[in-house]
């Protein structure tokens, strides 16, 4: 089995339990072992506007913990994946900064070497496990479903630090969903932001962006949304009703994580995938 250290981040284990439940159910079925590692902390990204050095230190610390275990990190949150990727990019090209960070890590007997790899849900499924392998294991194809994919900003940009998908025309989720039997169509608002990055400072503007994208997806006739980010999911799923009020629209569209769709197609009971924790109207899909 492929083995990765699971880096859960902050939001998944404190709010977005469905994401964690679903990925812990599906990846063992695809011969991937997720290893729980002690000592991980915040990725640092929420602190970037306050203290960039702290952000860099926290990201390097988490990477060093993974390196000490001799494991690459599976990072299902795009914001965390972005923070750790940016840290690797900065420290690879700046020896002085790397030495400074390591002097700070020495108090915990940690050393950042830059050897740990990073994978997100999308590239783990598409690039490492592979679409054909997933297709061969499908038990309950997702028939007669038109799904709208949402990648989220942090998976797409900036390209120079290395992101899991193409910034202009991401297609990896579509390929995985096609293997599961579902159909995905392009829509003009596909790359639009969910609004989460500005929610803390400009909540009304954030909910406006959320509502506008949800309304567009609904107007295009999609049956549901597929996402892979706990921050995006929070906006589209649990804040859907409030977003509808903000843009004066009646929103009624199910939102599921890619790993929840995957689990359903692999024959996992929906209760084990956390569908009861989704706030959006998933019951209208009549999923088994």
Can you characterise this structure?
It is a single chain. The chain is an alpha/beta fold and 288 residues long. The protein folds into two domains: 2-119, Glutathione S-transferase Yfyf (Class Pi), Chain A, domain 2 (Up-down Bundle); 137-285, Rossmann fold (3-Layer(aba) Sandwich), CATH 3.40.50. 45% of the residues lie in helices and 10% in strands. The chain has twelve helices and eight strands. It has helices at residues 11-14, 17-29, 52-69, 78-93, 95-105, 121-136, 153-156, 172-179, 203-219, 230-238, 240-246, 258-265, and strands at residues 2-6, 32-36, 73-74, 118-119, 146-150, 183-184, 224-227, 255-257. The strands form two sheets. A four-stranded parallel beta sheet has the order 2-1-3-4. The radius of gyration is 19 Å and the shape is globular.
The gist of it:
The protein is of the alpha/beta class and 288 residues long.
Task: Please render the helix and strand layout as text.
Layout: E1 2-6, H1 11-14, H2 17-29, E2 32-36, H3 52-69, E3 73-74, H4 78-93, H5 95-105, E4 118-119, H6 121-136, E5 146-150, H7 153-156, H8 172-179, E6 183-184, H9 203-219, E7 224-227, H10 230-238, H11 240-246, E8 255-257, H12 258-265
Parallel strand pairs: 1-2, 1-3, 3-4, 5-6, 5-7, 7-8
Helix pairs in contact: 2-12, 3-4, 4-5, 6-8, 9-11
Using only CA atoms, what is the Rg?
Answer: 19 Å
- Highest CATH level, the class of the largest domain: Alpha Beta
**Shape, per Cα inertia axes:** globular
Largest sheet: 4 strands, parallel
- Which structural category fits the helices and strands? alpha/beta
In the CATH scheme, what's the topology name of the largest domain?
Rossmann fold
Number of domains: 2
Poorly predicted tracts of residues:
none
Please report which band the strand proportion falls in: under 5%, 5-15%, 15-25%, 25-35%, 35-45% or over 45%.
5-15%
**Continuous helix count:** 12
**Architecture (CATH level 2) name of the largest domain:** 3-Layer(aba) Sandwich
Relative helix content: 40-55%
How are helices and strands ordered from N to C? EHHEHEHHEHEHHEHEHHEH
Q: In angstroms, what separates the terminal alpha carbons?
A: 29 Å
Strand line-up in the sheet with most strands: 2-1-3-4
Can you count the beta strands? Answer: 8
Mean pLDDT: 96
